[in-house]
Amino acid sequence: MKPLVLALCAAVAAATPAAAQIAPAQPAGAAHWRALTELDLEAAYALVRDNHPGAVPEVGDDAFRAGLDRAIAEGRARAARVDSYAGYAATLNAFAVALGDKHIWSRQALRPAIYYWPSLVVARRGGTWQVADDSREGAAPSLVGARLIGCDGRSADELGAERLGTYRAVWSIEAQRVQTAPYLLVDDGNPFLTRPKACEFEAGGVRSTVTLNWSRIGPVSLTPHVAKAINGGAAGFGVRRFAGGYWIALESLDDSARAVVDAVKAQATDLRAAPMVVLDLRGNGGGASSYGDEIAQALMGARYVRQVQDNAGANACAAAWRATPGNLEGLRAFRRDNGANLDPDTRNYLESTERGLDAAIKAGKAFDTPVRACPGADRPERAPADGRGSLLTGRMVILTDASCFSSCLLVVQQFRRLGALHVGDATDAATRYMEVREALLPSGISYASTLQKVAMAAPARIGPFLPARPYEGDIGDTAALEAWVAGLR
């Protein structure tokens, strides 16, 4: 699931005069925003329809194709009502979210100049909504730690499904509820939502109703308040000793992982003899899962890893790229732009894939290799291996938070199969589609993405993976977390 196209988002904030609420554009401006929304929405739809593997019948993903039809129908209905930038952004975001895969996104190069908030920010912890920041002036007692029951007669979960599940998160995945929870009571001007007026909280068994007083706040000022509600950690990078044995910190599977992999290999003898080895993936959003393969082989031995993979039916069916001019040109552009930084194996892979795509396109084929159903791909997760044959003598532990996504999921899946004890928080989830490609939309102010390749040997959904030992504390507190892990029995 290593993305082949990466782009950076420039956030632009502008000052605006004071206002009682985020006002819609004037009539003349409203017409322009509506036209821009319709233009970019159709372009985002075409990007997915014309390039995503699931959008063609050969893959047999009827649910994806039906979801794509619903997403564009709902998007067109919203677009007809747009009269501002906020409506434009909400429409594009909702279209992407409706497709059910976080690899498909809408990304605006602008963000609102102002937000509104009730001076309260909530977090999602342990399946409940809790106040993480209370900045109300003169309010006593503080609501920090209080549980949000609901607002305006609706439960907090219902409120979240509407405000976050439509525009920010795939709501069936708990990890994405955790990631987006800080924005539950933040108004970014979305014209399709209404601000809650009063909410009910519970603290110490006592319930209270609080009238929300909304006020404006700039994006820079809002950031530290939101940060208090982010329920996640940052592993960092490196190999170190801790009370239970050895701790391998791997916050990303990008190029920064290479030094960690090399350190694991260099210290393999000591790591294999340790009573416990922890692979810390907090904050890991993916990259190249091959780094995880290398760590697994260095710790447990290549023979053991291959044996477990073969028993799990790995690589039983070939992956296939959808053969389209856009996907071919995307690969060529990536190779041109990154040629100097590509290792020989990656360069050869890209060139071979380009030749295959080019030949398939000329032959009128939908994929560079035949797509066929892969028996057993969607079977339940197999029982973990018992460790017999592994060179690791101690306990293997894999630690995740809600950030684990994309290739991080593949690493977690592999280590669970290898017999690792999974601890921490539940991971995010992805699908059998991979290789992200992002494109600038016609307006020039937003990007949209699609996926280009399908792994028929993988299950339709990869994850979420639930830990055998959930961590109830602050998963960002590394010292406390290490002490807890060291005491696992």
Write the layout of secondary structure elements.
Elements: H1 27-51, H2 62-79, H3 85-97, E1 106-108, E2 115-117, E3 120-125, E4 128-134, E5 147-151, E6 154-155, H4 156-163, H5 174-180, E7 198-203, E8 206-211, E9 215-217, H6 219-227, E10 237-242, E11 245-250, H7 257-266, H8 268-273, E12 276-280, H9 290-300, H10 302-311, E13 319-321, H11 325-338, H12 344-362, E14 395-400, H13 407-417, E15 421-424, E16 430-431, E17 433-440, E18 446-455, E19 461-462, E20 469-470, H14 478-486
Parallel strand pairs: 11-12, 12-14, 14-15, 15-20
Antiparallel strand pairs: 1-18, 2-9, 3-4, 5-6, 5-7, 7-8, 10-11, 13-18, 16-19, 17-18
Helix pairs in contact: 1-2, 1-3, 2-3, 7-9, 9-10, 9-13, 11-12
Kindly describe this structure.
The structure is a single chain. This protein has 489 residues and is an alpha+beta fold. Helices cover 35% and strands 19% of the residues. It is built from 14 helices and 20 strands. Strands 10-11-12-14-15-20 form a six-stranded mixed beta sheet. Strands 1, 13, 17 and 18 form a four-stranded antiparallel beta sheet that branches. Strand 10 (237-242) and strand 11 form a beta hairpin. The protein starts with 26 loop residues before the first helix and ends with a helix. Mean pLDDT is 92; it is low at 1-21.
Would you report the number of β strands? 20
Q: Indicate the low-confidence ranges by residue numbers.
A: 1-21
Query: Would you give the CATH topology of the largest domain?
Result: 2-enoyl-CoA Hydratase, Chain A, domain 1
Could you name the CATH homologous superfamily of the largest domain? 2-enoyl-CoA Hydratase, Chain A, domain 1
Gyration radius from CA atoms, angstroms: 24 Å
